[in-house]
Design goal:
- About 55% of the residues lie in helices and about 10% in strands.
- It is an alpha/beta fold.
- The protein has 4 domains: about 80 residues, 2-Layer Sandwich (GMP Synthetase, Chain A, domain 3); about 140 residues, Rossmann fold (3-Layer(aba) Sandwich); about 70 residues, Helicase, Ruva Protein, domain 3 (Orthogonal Bundle); about 90 residues, DnaA protein, C-terminal DNA-binding domain (Chromosomal Replication Initiator Protein Dnaa, Chain: A), CATH 1.10.1750.10.
- Strand 3 and strand 4 form a beta hairpin.
- Helix 11 packs across helix 12 and helix 18 packs across helix 20.
- The longest helix is centred in the C-terminal third of the chain and has 17 residues.
- About 10% of the residues have low confidence.
Length: about 450
């Protein structure tokens, strides 16, 4: 029997797309290609060993279920990596064939606030260059091509203007060009939390080994080290160990080193040893280029008058621009509304009219979640553990993390829990969100209520 691989692959992709958020689908499943199919089995190929292992462990069952729904019966599936063309077999989390940080140190990734790894889609090719960021872009390209040229590389600028994109682009380019290297990427807050945990558990030697044996260390939002004396001291020695061994250090911040206060002078000096590159808010020309690029990537056409309006209206940062274009795309596709100037005006009305949403408070989140689950706020804050209250507590912690600037430690204080419990709750909801469209919809609904003050 002959099969149309492209058609079957499209149906499987559509099935998986309906199970996950667009971000999760794009990250894990967009490059899952059907390369062989018979009545006895299906074989898929994906890009890279890490992604292959993840699909074979975390997502294997859901892929198999999607395949069964598409073809109408259960069929054995295999997923291989296109990088080495070796078959990856399903493994359990403790299977010795699954790389661990100790066994395979070519790439270590640190987890983001929504629980994702380094994003392979962030490359130099899709980074839009303009006057406000061309120096930072050039410095990053130089580091990626010959990573000891500028060390450390310190990138700073306001939130949402492309620092993390460049950081990931360096990593992806180094991975593409050179031999296997060990990258360690962390948010500064994660570095801090890991050190606190290591001190508490007596595992500082393991903590130091993880960071000081990196070939490339990437720390996002290094400004959060300000005022943390013991963290600064540990990072000072980590910095020295890497620098003295000619290992690349890349840091991002929302301000230059001299404006990170209080920061030890010896650290400030070291941050300035290499090259400091700033990124400014995008110019009008760059905003227009970004809008055009984002619209093209989403497969939508925005009329010239609407492009002009959006370029003049969306001036805050790139993240704001991308969010607005995604919203326009969603309204157009879900409501079958043509993209016009008036439609774009309505889509971004809150920004254009200067109406800023009221700050989200923890108390507001408590109230909305308690009402949704039919429990008392005191129960969420308390020690009761029945299933409904526990789930309300997990959701509340997750929403506080997503909608406020509170640290994990501060969130823990609000719930009378330690930061490890907070992390556990956040991961629980993130996993549910990825697996269940209903959970994702509930999060959107609750978030809307929280912000509609």
């Amino acid at each position: 029997m002959e099969f149309d691989l492209d058609s079957v692959q499209k149906m499987i992709h559509d099935n998986l797309r309906g199970r996950f958020s667009p971000t999760v689908f794009q990250l894990w499943f967009s490059e899952l290609n059907l390369i062989e199919m018979s009545e006895e089995h299906m074989e898929f190929c994906t890009n890279g060993d890490f992604k292959c292992n993840t699909l074979n462990t975390r997502y294997f069952d859901v892929i198999k279920e999607a395949v069964a729904e598409v073809v109408g019966f259960e069929i054995p599936i295999h997923i291989i990596s296109s990088t080495v063309q070796e078959r990856c077999v399903p493994t359990g989390p403790d299977d010795p064939r699954l790389p661990t940080p100790e066994d395979d140190r070519s790439m270590e990734i640190g987890m983001k606030i929504e629980g994702q790894s380094i994003v392979e889609e962030y490359t130099f090719e899709n980074f839009i260059v303009g006057e406000s960021n061309k120096f930072a872009h050039a410095a990053c390209v130089a580091v990626a091509n010959k990573h000891d040229t500028y060390n450390p590389l310190f990138i700073y600028g306001p939130s949402g203007i492309g620092k993390t994109h460049l950081l990931f682009a360096i990593t992806n380019e180094m991975k593409r060009r050179g031999p296997a290297m060990r990258f360690v990427y962390k948010k500064c807050e994660e570095f801090t939390n890991e050190m606190v945990s290591a001190l508490k558990n007596g595992t500082m030697d393991k903590f130091r080994d993880r960071y000081r044996t990196a070939e490339v260390l990437l720390i996002d939002d290094i400004q959060f080290i300000a005022g943390k004396t013991s963290i600064q001291e540990e990072f000072f020695y980590t910095f020295n160990a890497l620098y003295e061994n000619n290992k690349q250090i890349i840091l991002t911040s929302d301000r230059p080193p001299k404006e990170i206060n209080p920061l030890e002078e010896r650290l400030c000096t070291r941050f300035e040893w290499g090259i400091i590159a700033d990124i400014q808010p995008p110019s009008e020309e760059l905003r227009l280029a970004i809008i055009r690029h984002k619209a093209e990537s989403l497969g939508i056409v925005i009329p010239e008058d609407a492009l002009s309006f959006l370029t003049n209206s969306l001036q805050k940062n790139i993240r704001q621009i991308e969010g607005a274009i995604k919203k326009i795309h969603a309204i157009s596709s879900l409501a079958s509304v043509p993209i016009t100037l008036d439609m774009c005006r309505r889509a971004v009305a809150d920004i254009v009219n200067g109406v800023e949403p009221s700050p989200v408070t923890v108390e507001r989140i408590f109230k909305v979640v308690a009402e949704n689950y039919g429990v008392a706020v005191d129960d969420i804050k308390g020690q009761k553990r029945n299933a409904n209250i526990a789930m309300a507590r997990h959701m509340c912690i997750y929403l506080v993390r997503q909608n406020t600037n509170l640290s994990l430690e501060d969130i823990g204080k609000r719930f009378d829990r330690d930061h490890s419990t907070v992390i556990s709750s956040i991961r629980r909801i993130e996993e549910d969100k990825e697996k269940s469209p209903a959970t994702a919809a509930l999060i959107d609904e609750l978030t809307g209520k929280i912000k509609s003050v």
